Amino acid sequence: xxxxxxxxxxxxxxxxxxxxxxxxxxxxxxxxxxxxxxxxxxxxxxxxxxxxxxxxxxxxxxxxxxxxxxxxxxxxxxxxxxxxxxxxxxxxxxxxxxxxxxxxxxxxxxxxxxxxxxxxxxxxxxxxxxxxxxxxxxxxxxxxxxxxxxxxxxxxxxxxxxxxxxxxxxxxxxxxxxxxxxxxxxxxxxxxxxxxxxxxxxxxxxxxxxxxxxxxxxxxxxxxxxxxxxxxxxxxxxxxxxxxxxxxxxxxxxxxxxxxxxxxxxxxxxxxxxxxxxxxxxxxxxxxxxxxxxxxxxxxxxxxxxxxxxxxxxxxxxxxxxxxxxxxxxxxxxxxxxxxxxxxxxxxxxxxxxxxxxxxxxxxxxxxxxxxxxxxxxxxxxxxxxxxxxxxxxxxxxxxxxxxxxxxxxxxxxxxxxxxxxxxxxxxxxxxxxxxxxxxxxxxxxx
Length: 447
Hints:
The chain is 2% helix and 44% strand. It has one helix at residues 75-83; strands at residues 59-61, 88-91, 96-99, 103-104, 109-113, 118-121, 125-131, 151-153, 165-170, 178-188, 191-194, 208-212, 217-218, 220-224, 226-230, 235-241, 243-249, 251-256, 261-264, 267-277, 284-287, 290-300, 304-305, 308-311, 315-325, 337-338, 342-345, 349-361, 364-369, 376-385, 388-393, 400-407, 413-414, 419-420, 424-426, 434-435, 439-440.
């Protein structure tokens, strides 16, 4: 019998976490858990349930099960409806959900929103969450794993099949668990071949674990146009952990006290037509995830951290059609200090950005940092940053930059780097950077 790990997964107090590490979830969350919904909620006023029992295979109208009139909480009836497992949930245009606690989403469900459907929450953590489950460790890893390897060797034959998802986890520091999510391509005795390159090295075998993501959140989809907000100062809108085949389209985060949308330890998904505004931290963040497409992202007024963040071993992401408007240092009337418009940080790789229009940053419009390799930035228009358009730093290799313009850098001196500011700043430790001849920086120079 498989023993399920029941570790706590939550972001109930995200403001207490480290600024970067809090991007998505507390570190212990990355190993998976079971999301359990409560049984009651304050102010619930749902209409009578039409009938009892499973709704598997059916399409349902949320208004037949929830009041969704913008007054009493709909958390309990909506959770009960989701748990009855309909295939498709329709949220009509007049649907006005109110949530006073998180609602936990399930696999193999499509949430279809008609124009005008909306959700308001005032709860710490995320208003909507979906969290997959992992097994106990599959065995001991007996060979160190180099970065970009496709091979894991155990001390026994793993209980896996081709196509399964796995998670490698260095648990030496419980406050900063380092992971890699992958898919099994082949099994030969005790050796596992992976579909995707392993994005970071794992050499501390004593603290290395390998888990089967045996019940991921799978085939979860949002379709249509959904307006959502979380008014709590420590609240976010949507969190996805341990997923496969995720598809999110047409989400408009009107505001959030903390992070807007967070995706972690997930593989193979698409995000489209996502908009965020007035979030207290990152607008949209991916962490420890692989093989995603993001097409159409708009952000405005993010008050802290970055509008778009790829953090801690994110790889194989195609990003197109990005428009971001943030603040220069000291400009935010609410006192926030927004960072870069786009951040790629900590062992990310093969992230390709194209068609970017970014303006307003207290640091750089785009930053590629801390061992992030083989990234591309092309077809861009960057403006109005305190320190410059692009910074490549801390052993980030083979970045390619071409076809774009950088203008209106505000400060002439970069206090952090202790040298004159430059539209494109390349760290001395960064090898193989390629700058195209079709970049307009005026009197720019590389430093």
